[in-house]
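Shipment paperwork, digital attachment
Item: protein structure file
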Amino acid sequence: MIFVTTRNPGKLREIRDALGELPVPVAGLEDFPTLPEPAETGATFAENARLKAHYYAQATGQWCLADDSGLAVDALGGRPGVHSARFAAERIPPGANRHAVDHANNQRLLEELAGLAPDQLTARFLCHLALSDGRRVLLEAQGALEGLIVRQGQGHNGFGYDPHFYVPSEGLTLAQMPAARKNAISHRGQAVRRLGELLRALLARP
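Attachment content:
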């Protein structure tokens, strides 16, 4: 069993789809509803991914795959970066659902970018994956997707910043793409496929 260290159903679905068929089952953290989340104290996506992978692997006794990913906007000096999921934390009441969290994060992003020209809104999604057995990192992989921030959200698929992340080569935001197309080009899809190849090789070793 490999546990993906998320309770975000959208993220878990994307990772499962991108991994494809594996000789071991892949599950999320729904079997551990009371397990507290670790403090994400890393300064980079890589540090946070390793931290989470080790923490959950030690807590569950299983191999755990952790993803740390987020949005880096050039005009904001790379922010929100590792704080992407909690960019507007001070505006979000306790117990708010994911839709409310996404809305608050997107609102703060657009406020900070107010007054900038469209060609100044370059950004990228970054993803770092780490697989741990609780003692060491077994595998790591990365992915990146370049795009532009658009002020008017478009599309209803995906989650997080997807409605405001426009991919020029596709002519669509991530939230406008079917799930299969998003997974084919996304930062997370790239990283998961790379890790999947490494994982298959690891599992095939005698």
